[in-house]
Amino acid sequence: MKKFTWLMTVVVALSLILSACGPAATPTPAPVEKFRVAVVMPSAINDLAFSQSMYDALIRVQNEMGGPENFEIVYSENMFVVDDAAAALRDYASQGFDLVIGHGSQYGSSLQEIAPDFPDTSFAWGTTVDTFGLPNVFAYEAASDQGGYVNGVLAASLTTSNVIGVVGPIETGDAKLYVDGFKAGVAATNPAIQVNVNYIGSFSDVALASEAANTHISAGADVLTGTAQMVVGAIGKAEEAGALWFGTQSNQTSLAPSIVVASQVYHWEVVLDEMISMIKSGTLGGKSFVINLANGGEVIEYNPAYTFPAEAGALAEAAIEGIKNGSIKPLP
Amino acid sequence: MISDLFSVTVLVGILASGIRLATPYLYAAIGETFGQRSGVLNLGVEGQMLLGAFAAFYVALKTGNLGLAVFVALLVGAVMGLAMAFVTVNLHAQQGISGIGFYLFGLGLSDLLFQKMLGTVETVKGFPKVDIPFLSDIPGLGEIFFSQSILVYGAYLLVPVAWFVLNKTTLGLKIRSVGENPEAADSLGVSVAGIRYFTITLGGTLSGLAGASLSIGLLNVFQQNMTSGLGFIAVALVYFGGWRPWGVLGGALLFSMVNALQLWIQVLGIPIPSDIAVMMPYVLTILVLVASVSRVRAPSALTKSFERDE
Q1: Residues near B23 by Cβ (< 8 Å), separated by ≥ 6?
Q2: Peptide bond into B23 cis (omega under 30)
Q3: How far is it, in rounded angstroms, from Cα B178 to Cα B182?
Q4: Which range has the top average pLDDT, A149-163, A202-216, B121-135, B258-272?
Q5: Cα of A184 vs its chain's centroid, Å
Q6: How far apart are CA A226 and CA A50, in angstroms?
Q7: Tens of pLDDT along A275-322?
Q8: Which has the closest alpha carbon to B229: A81, A226, A208, A86?
Q9: How far is A106 from chain B (nearest CA, A)?
Q10: What is the C-alpha separation between B102 and B310, in angstroms, rounded?
Q11: DSSP H helical segments within chain A, as ranges?
């Protein structure tokens, strides 16, 4: 029994150390005017993908609003355990933040439970359109099919083998939307091109994602794309084989400057700005937002170090314009 | 469509992928085999792998010296192994729970170090593919077996070495006797604590190498929690392989080949939902495990700590 007690002490001590490793969420007593945002994310703020897109956007909003004195950001990252995330969301809400964001569709049911307990706090979650009919919940999503379509158009005009590979996580939500948009863009440009899609069943298995990229390359692909944070392994394999890469969610050029052609980058600040001004004027929720190419929430960022033929660029720009003015609909 | 699976390109692709995917499992599971044969279950493999992966990546990024990177990964794994040995052998802690503690420690610490020392996902120049002269020119077979990175070759060479040590040397005999009947081994003058210290430290060292094989051999990136369960599958493979190196090799290859197969099934557009496809390696592993469960017996003293009666 003694041993067991000792062991429990070790386990508890370890878990304390570990929880201390996470970024501390200590609120400082703030002047009345400061706007305070808390966000809970499923992966790391520097994942070059989904979580980073939100973190970068919050930082941009902070700069617009004049720095940390006017706009406070606290975050909990790597909250892949939904129960932990729910506890964090509740903590933030009870600390009186103006806006509490659950950045992941897995956090929806937790927010639905927590939000009614804090009627004076505004909540937001995504990617989704569902505000549960609650007056203090915002919802946001990305029309990732639009940037996917543009990436697809450009990919189709750059492939020479006419085989393109896609590495996806799980066939759902934002990832599926991007992949379907990408396929539509390729098909609209050149229906003869074969797009091979591979969902690896995980958002974190870097090894399997990289082997999926190897598989595409063996199957003849000379252009690859993929979505979610585990694709960093796949980008490396594309670079080794000299295949081109198209990114999404965040700008992935830094990982392989010689082969990344373009990335669809999420600028959530478009949505955040609107939410913040609504909250300031007293509306705490009930609205859902979409970022897309037209409202500037999605931007195709080209890699300046990679040059492609002008015709290809013109096709991509035409696709962007077409989607913006509604003449092209990526998905029926 | 299904017939596409039997083309040479696809078969070669599946086998070459499977060989690569099995590499980290082999290092980690062979290390774990030594520990379990001496009676210690180490569930901290995943944490040791993560720290090894980070250490190797960081050293390779900062110095460009891959040899040094591997050495540091081995060292980090060994230190983690020593700590585990101290907790289970000297303090007689319950092995399963302390292993999970070490896993969480490795997960948290590697994440923290990554945040503080790197801050963002970067790539590094890892071990290149090494073509073995003449052999790599054999059509098909060359690409599968003789055109891989040096850490891949190392993992497969480890299997016969581990078999030899466990079955043909005095050290192996001591390890097995400590795992079967520590009281008897002790009465014959074998140091139970010494042997267990050795096997657990060896296991940690090899787990560190398993991590390095990912971060500077196969993937050349480091990301938080990048092992995503590989370490636990490695522990399962030890049971699967019946605590024998060749069995572990068979299990690792089976699991990895089926994983490679399901990647190709999706690429070839064979109409199986992706959710079913990604389940295949796990389902097959469970089926084989069920079919073979009575074949071998676990080391009798597995998970039992040893205290000499005096």
Answers
A1: B151, B152, B155, B210, B213, B217, B218
A2: no
A3: 4
A4: A149-163
A5: 21
A6: 12
A7: 999 999 999 999 999 999 999 999 999 999 999 999 999 999 999 999
A8: A208
A9: 18
A10: 31
A11: 2-21, 50-64, 82-94, 108-114, 144-158, 173-189, 206-218, 232-241, 269-280, 310-324
ipTM for the complex shown: 0.85
Q: Do A201 and B108 touch (CB under 8 A)?
A: no
* B8 in contact with A, Cβ within 8 Å: no
Chain A interface includes B266 (CB < 8 A): yes
Domain extent for B75 = 2-120+134-291
What is the pLDDT at residue A12?
53
Cβ distance B126 to B60 under 8 Å? Answer: yes
Give the CA distances from residue B240 to residues A208, B96, B253, in Å, rounded to whole numbers and listed in that order: 21, 18, 12
Is B117 part of the contact surface with chain A (CB cutoff 8 Å)? no
A229 CB neighbours in chain B (<8 A) are: 223
CA distances from A206 to A78, A166, A227 (A): 16, 15, 12
Contacts of B9 in chain A (CB under 8 A): 218-219
* Residue partners of A5: CB distance under 8 A and separation at least 6: none
Contact B24 A207 (CB under 8 A): yes
Residues of A in contact with B101 (CB under 8 A): 10-11, 14
Residue B199 lies in a domain: yes
Please work out, in degrees rounded to the nearest 5, the angle formed at the alpha carbon of residue B204 by the alpha carbons of A9 and B27: 140
Span of A1-10, A87-96, B139-148, B271-280 with lowest mean pLDDT: A1-10
Both tokens assigned to B58: 């960081």
Question: Rounded to whole angstroms, how far apart are CA atoms A259 and A217?
Answer: 14
| B104 with A18: Cβ contact below 8 A | yes
Helix, strand, coil share (%) of chain B residues, nearest 5:
75, 5, 25
Write out the H or E segment, with its range, that includes residue A141.
strand A137-142
Q: Which residue has the higher pLDDT, B286 or A29?
A: B286
Mean pLDDT is lowest, of A227-231, B26-30, B204-208, for A227-231
CB A191, CB A171: distance < 8 Å = no
State yes or no: pLDDT of B271 exceeds 90.
no
CA distance A230 to chain B (A): 8
Amino acid at B142: G
| Domains of chain A from N-terminus onward | 25-143+268-291 (3.40.50.2300), 144-265+296-324 (3.40.50.2300)
- B270 in any annotated domain: yes
User: Looking at the complex, does the CB of residue B226 fall below 8 Å from at least one CB of chain A?
Assistant: yes
Place of tokens 């420690």: B105
Give how many domains chain B has, as a whole number.
Answer: 1
Which of A9, A163, A208 would you mutate first to test chain B, the one with the most B CBs within 10 A? A208
Tell whether B126 is covered by a domain: no
Q: Do A211 and B264 touch (CB under 8 A)?
A: no
Cα–Cα separations (whole angstroms), residue B227 to A205, B47, B212:
7, 9, 11
Token duo for residue B258: 């089926």
Q: How confident is the model at residue B29 (pLDDT cuts 50, 70, 90)?
A: very high
Whether B157 has its CB under 8 Å from any CB of chain A: the answer is no
Residue B213 located in a structural domain: yes
Residues 6+ apart with CB under 8 A from B138: B146
State the CATH number of the domain containing residue B90.
Answer: 1.10.3470
Count of other CB atoms within 10 angstroms of residue A194:
17
